[in-house]
Each structure stands twice: as structure tokens, then as C-alpha cells.
């Protein structure tokens, strides 16, 4: 079966059938995987997209339409079909919650509000109670029914797939939390909110104080001096959205722990849940420049309150230990800052939903290279043709260099991934050059010089040890400066283009020896863009990107 192992430097490796595996993932639209017939025309497109891992929903209402009667026929067929196309699956368990609602609960749950009560919000306009299309997390019957169904699903997967390991991971629920209010106002929820904070919550937060992330410590500035017999508002603050969010996060995390632990007991494969993020516009990332509400809101209830956003990430990690990690869905948040936040406590990083356009494809290289992601997954891949999807080219290149990336991680080598966004003529360049240190060398990574307008750029640089570097990508250049004392000159000894063989296990063969114009007369390793803009200059001295893979040796005097 698949498992996640820890590596040097806080990185992780996903092992599938005992071998390191880097996900070139893509998520289907919500209903696609429910129909094997619909998927027949989708599988070949996914292969053409150079995808190796498909994320798709498996819903509670489909597999348990009547209580205690399970139907796995559609699931079994899509697993067989994925296997026949050489693809792995990450199943998304749409159980009690999907996007802050309970629309995937089966009819026998939806129509029995006495046994399975719903959350109640305070209407923001009238102040009156409002019944929500969302199960309340404060009722034992709901999580027990969900956990039973989830455990039955995983038991079935173990029976039919443990050897082949087509399903390599499962997401537990989807973007949980309460929409429409900062906390549940139902009678059961109110009784708990007005009661004593569970002593073990206080004990654990006190014991873990030094390891909490900064945003939670700021929220809990005076928490560590509170009395343990106090109520939620006594401990965390009165009339506070943050108090409401902590209350909901604790109970959502415990709910998912009940579900996840039941599944783990049936079949011990990696489990995670994902988070609908707060939208905090950030001038440092063009992709986050959208109105807050369009991107999911900035306050609890605009985004799902109690979900695993960074403000309560520690609570989720501490109280849902059966989840191997918490994953961010990154659409409009600052991409790299979010990657860094969700490496908290050295947990694995996986991005199960993100943009499928050019900005999304460019940013993938930072996630894989700098932040050690197990993979990224553009959403709605079945909506786009492989001919126009930017991920087709990016995933082809990623497949060609996956052995080098995985080997570097396993050996604790330094990797750095980066991107430079597209911008129009006359606009300021939104992407700054990057200066990093690898071993005894300072690297300056910048856009490749052209007389015309620069193109978007992306890549990964791997330090292979000593004076050797491995470079992937296009549209950038790297100069090197030795940090060894009394060095008077730093230069490039050689640059070799590498070319990948075809097939599932590519090998890199020697290509051209690059020098002269192709190295800026020895000043930098240039990884040119696909169509360099010469700006009308009459000497054509810029070559277009070819293999997008190179290896260099540098030296100093």
C-alpha cells in the first residue's frame, strides 16, 4: 500500500508499491467520477495531459443510498479503468461535508433532522435563527453514520485494491466549516459554547505553546494565564469571531477524527483533508489580486468557520491526528506564503485544488522545488483540452525530471523552485530576481535577458553537490558567485544540455555543449524561453527553449 515517509530537511516522500512517487495530479469536476460511462472519454485525455494521478469524488449518497445497503459497482469500474490507463487515484470522500454544506449526505440522512440535526445560523440581516443545509457537528449520530460508511468504503478498497494500489490516498470530506455564521447556534452547540472549555484542549495548547504558529499565538495572546474552569469566552475572548472560530475548529477537527480514525482502522493508507482558505489580497502575488468575497471572504462565516485555515491549523493538527496532513486549496491566496504556512510542524504539503491556467502551472514549480510538495492538482482538468492546457507541457517536463527531483529529496540536496509571471509591455515587472545560497555558491536567478519583452519563466535548480547544478525550465538565467574567502573570480566551467528519452522511466542523454551566446558569453547559464523576443534586433543570437533541461559545472579562482 502507499505511505508517506519523512526525509532530511523536513521533506516527505510518497511511496507507492514501495517506490518514490511524485504526483502529477489533476482533479475532475465534482460529478465526473460518479459515472464510468462518462469517464470512458476522459481517461485518454488525462493520459494525453501527462497526468499520473486523478482526484475524483466518491460520495456518501452514491455508495449508501439506503442505510446499511452499499453499492460499489461504479467505484469498482472506475478503479479498473484508471488501472488500465496506468493512472493512480486519490478519492475525495464527499460525506457529511462538501464546501461547508451537506449536499452529499444520503437521502435517509437529509430527511431525518431529528436523528441528524442541522446547524443553525443567526441571519445577518434579521438576527433570526436560520436552518442551514449543513449537518451539525454536535450530534453523535451524524459522525457515527459517516464514520461507518467511510470505514466500509476503506474496507472494500482494501479487499479489491490493496495489491494493485490504484487508490493511493483519500481526502476526508471537502472544505469543511460553517457558512453563513461564525458558529453553530443550535441548542446543543450553544450549551457547549456556554459550558466549560474541555480541560484537555487547554492542557494541550499550553503544552504546545512554543510550537503554535504565530497567527494562533497572536489570537491567544492572554490564553496561557486563563483559568481552566472558564467558558469559551472567558478563555478565548468575548464577542469574538476568533473565539467562535476556535470553538468550531475544535469540534470539526474532532468530528473528522472520528471519521478518519474509523477509516484508518479499516485500511491504513494516507488520509488528509483540505481547506477553503481566507482570501487576504497580497500585492506580492498577482494571482491574489481579487475582491475578498469573490475569493472566499476574510472572516469566519464568509469562508467556512472552523475549517482548517492557518488561524486554527494547529488545532486541526493536534485534534485530528489520524489525518496525515492538512492541505490548502490555493486559488487566490498568496501561493508561496500559503505553501510555507502549510508546511507547519513539518507536515507534508499537497495542493489538491489550484488554478489550471498559466499562473497555476508556473507556480507548481515553486511548490515542487522549494516547498517539497507531494504534488499539485489543478481543478476541473476534464473541462480543458490537452492541446490548450498549460499543464500538458509542464507535466511532460516534470515527468522527465522526476527521478532527479526525488533523488535530490532523498539525499537531502538543496532544491529551489521559482516562477516569473507574464506581464504586459509598459507595466512594471511583478516578479523580482531571486538570490539564494546553495553550498558555497550564491545564485542570482532572474529573467533571461532579451532586447524585447521578457516571457513568463519557471524552473527548478538542484544543487548536486560541490560545483555541480541541475537546471530545469525556461525563460530564466542563473549567475553564480563563490562565497569562499579571497575568491577573485567566479565563472562557468561547462554547460551541457540534457535530453530525456521517451517512456515511463526516462533517462537523460547528453545534448549540446552550450557556450558563447547561449551562456551570455560565460556570465550565466541561460534557460531560454520558447519564443525569445529579439525586439527587432538584427542579429538573431537567442535560441528558443528546446529540452528545458541542463547541467552545469561552475568554478572560482
TrEMBL record:
Going by the UniProt record, its keywords in alphabetical order are: Glycosidase, Hydrolase
Tell me where in this chain the Glycoside hydrolase family 42 N-terminal domain is found. Answer: 47-211
What GO cellular-component annotations does this UniProt entry give? beta-galactosidase complex
Q: Does the keyword RNA-binding feature in the UniProt annotation?
A: no
Q: Is the keyword Nucleotide-binding in the record?
A: no
A Gene Ontology biological process term: carbohydrate metabolic process
The superkingdom of the source organism is: Eukaryota
Q: Which GO terms describe its molecular function?
A: beta-galactosidase activity
Which positions fall inside the DUF5597 domain? Answer: 392-525
What name does the UniProt record give this protein? Glycoside hydrolase superfamily
What species is given as this protein's source? Plectosphaerella cucumerina
Amino acid at each position: 500500500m502507499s505511505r508517506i515517509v519523512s526525509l532530511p530537511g523536513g521533506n516527505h516522500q510518497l511511496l507507492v508499491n514501495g517506490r518514490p512517487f511524485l504526483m502529477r495530479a489533476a482533479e475532475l469536476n465534482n460529478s465526473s467520477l460518479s459515472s464510468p460511462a462518462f469517464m470512458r472519454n476522459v481517461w485518454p485525455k488525462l493520459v494525453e495531459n501527462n497526468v499520473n494521478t486523478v482526484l475524483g469524488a466518491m460520495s456518501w449518497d452514491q455508495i449508501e443510498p439506503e442505510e446499511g445497503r452499499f453499492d460499489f459497482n461504479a467505484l469498482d469500474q472506475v478503479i479498473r479503468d484508471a488501472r488500465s490507463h496506468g493512472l493512480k487515484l486519490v478519492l475525495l470522500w464527499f460525506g457529511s461535508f462538501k464546501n461547508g454544506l451537506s449536499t452529499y449526505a444520503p437521502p435517509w440522512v437529509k430527511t431525518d433532522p431529528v436523528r441528524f440535526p442541522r446547524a443553525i445560523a443567526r441571519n445577518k440581516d434579521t438576527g433570526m435563527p436560520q436552518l442551514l443545509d449543513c449537518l451539525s457537528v454536535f450530534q453523535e449520530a451524524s459522525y457515527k453514520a459517516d464514520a461507518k460508511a467511510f470505514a466500509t468504503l476503506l474496507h472494500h478498497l482494501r479487499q479489491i485494491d490493496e495489491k494493485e494500489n490504484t487508490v493511493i490516498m483519500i481526502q476526508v470530506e471537502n472544505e469543511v466549516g460553517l457558512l453563513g455564521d461564525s458558529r453553530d447556534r443550535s441548542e446543543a452547540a450553544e450549551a457547549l459554547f456556554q459550558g466549560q472549555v474541555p480541560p484537555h484542549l487547554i492542557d494541550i495548547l499550553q503544552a504546545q505553546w512554543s510550537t503554535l504558529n504565530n497567527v494562533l499565538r497572536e489570537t491567544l495572546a492572554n490564553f496561557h494565564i486563563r483559568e481552566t474552569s472558564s467558558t469559551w469566552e472567558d478563555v478565548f475572548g468575548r464577542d469574538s469571531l476568533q473565539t467562535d472560530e476556535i470553538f468550531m475548529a475544535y469540534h470539526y477537527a474532532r468530528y473528522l477524527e472520528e471519521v478518519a480514525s474509523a477509516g484508518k482502522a479499516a485500511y491504513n493508507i494516507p488520509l488528509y483533508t483540505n481547506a477553503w482558505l481566507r482570501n487576504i489580497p497580497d500585492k506580492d502575488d498577482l494571482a491574489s489580486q481579487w475582491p475578498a468575497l469573490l475569493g472566499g471572504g476574510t472572516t469566519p462565516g464568509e469562508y467556512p468557520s472552523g475549517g482548517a485555515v492557518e488561524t486554527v491549523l494547529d488545532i486541526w493538527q493536534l485534534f485530528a491526528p489520524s489525518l496525515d496532513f492538512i492541505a490548502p486549496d490555493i486559488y487566490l491566496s498568496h501561493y508561496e506564503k500559503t505553501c510555507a504556512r502549510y508546511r507547519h510542524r513539518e507536515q507534508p504539503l499537497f495542493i489538491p485544488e489550484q488554478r489550471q491556467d498559466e499562473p497555476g502551472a508556473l507556480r507548481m514549480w515553486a511548490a515542487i522545488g522549494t516547498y517539497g510538495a507531494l504534488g499539485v492538482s489543478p481543478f476541473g482538468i476534464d473541462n480543458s483540452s490537452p492541446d490548450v492546457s498549460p499543464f500538458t507541457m509542464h507535466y511532460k517536463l516534470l515527468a522527465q525530471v522526476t527521478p532527479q527531483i526525488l533523488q535530490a529529496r532523498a539525499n537531502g540536496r538543496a532544491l529551489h523552485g521559482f516562477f516569473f509571471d507574464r506581464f504586459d509591455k509598459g507595466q512594471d515587472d511583478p516578479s523580482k530576481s531571486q538570490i539564494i545560497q546553495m553550498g558555497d555558491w550564491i545564485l542570482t536567478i532572474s529573467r533571461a535577458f532579451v532586447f524585447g519583452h521578457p516571457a513568463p519563466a519557471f524552473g527548478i535548480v538542484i544543487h548536486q553537490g560541490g560545483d555541480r547544478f541541475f537546471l530545469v525550465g525556461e525563460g530564466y538565467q542563473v549567475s553564480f558567485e563563490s562565497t569562499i574567502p579571497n575568491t577573485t573570480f567566479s565563472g562557468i566551467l561547462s554547460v551541457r544540455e540534457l535530453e530525456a528519452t521517451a517512456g515511463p522511466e526516462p533517462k537523460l542523454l547528453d545534448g549540446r555543449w552550450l557556450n558563447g551566446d547561449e551562456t551570455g558569453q560565460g556570465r550565466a547559464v541561460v534557460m531560454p524561453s520558447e519564443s525569445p523576443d529579439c525586439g527587432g534586433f538584427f542579429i538573431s543570437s537567442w535560441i528558443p527553449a528546446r529540452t528545458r533541461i541542463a547541467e552545469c559545472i561552475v568554478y572560482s579562482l
